[in-house]
Amino acid sequence: MTSKLFGVLVIRADLVEQMVAHARRDHPREACGQLLGPEESDRPERYVPMTNADDSDAQGSDYRFDSKEQLRVHREAMERDEEPVVVFHSHTRVPRRPLTDTGLPEAYPSVKDIEYMGLQPGVHFAIVALTGPDAEPDLRSFLLDDAGEVVEDEIQVVENYMFSHTGAGDVPDRD
Amino acid sequence: MSATVSIPTILRTHTGGEKQVKADGSTLQEVITDLEANHPGIKDRLVTDGALHRFVNVYVNDEDVRFAGGLDAQVPDGGTVTILPAVAGGR
């Protein structure tokens, strides 16, 4: 049941809630995590919060997966025939190179984000921008096309994947 | 001295799509040299200016080699070398 549509992220509402809750919990530090799903499915099934091991900035305004934790999660994923479908992190501060003059965090990849996105072609990079721990979250998702250009995903939040039509030949499971 | 090397998606173009390959060597440096002999181009994706590239995490068994000798890390016979993309970013 492979149905990949480039530039579309279909995601369960409970997974969105888990990402946003993590972003709120860690605010004002950037939170990070990954959504794993069956290989080649483009379907995120579970959220794995990751430890932000970045120490380049005392305020936590960058992020880096803890490398040992990443290895452990990778091995577990391999055993379960899963792969990262979405890499998530939050933005809690004004970007170093803002795209707007609002003075607010932006749910848009930074130059550094884009550099690292290039290492995982086909993986969605979801960003939650939060102006405060209780603020309304701005969730957007991006990936790079073959030319390395940033493409914004259309996000479709669904209650479950059974009845979400993500492409031709996508047939609901039946008991 | 042979190790199993786990290859991340982005480098599988160098291994004909294989997720795991064998390579010989008793240090990470030697393993990478042997990888390059069989999968040309892969070394440049891992090493820059004589050190591991900041965009990759390399592990020998359970150890991140950044904290275990870098390219001089010992690779035991039958050991596992895992390569993963570094995941990072910032505002």
TrEMBL record, chain B:
Write the protein's name. MoaD/ThiS family protein
Pfam families documented for this protein: ThiS (PF02597)
Which Gene3D superfamilies has this protein been placed in? 3.10.20.30
Question: What lineage is this protein's organism placed in?
Answer: Bacteria, Bacillati, Actinomycetota, Actinomycetes, Pseudonocardiales
In terms of InterPro entries, this protein maps to: Beta-grasp_dom_sf, Mopterin_synth/thiamin_S_b, Sulfur_Carrier/Prot_Modifier, ThiS/MoaD-like
Q: Which residues form the signal peptide?
A: none
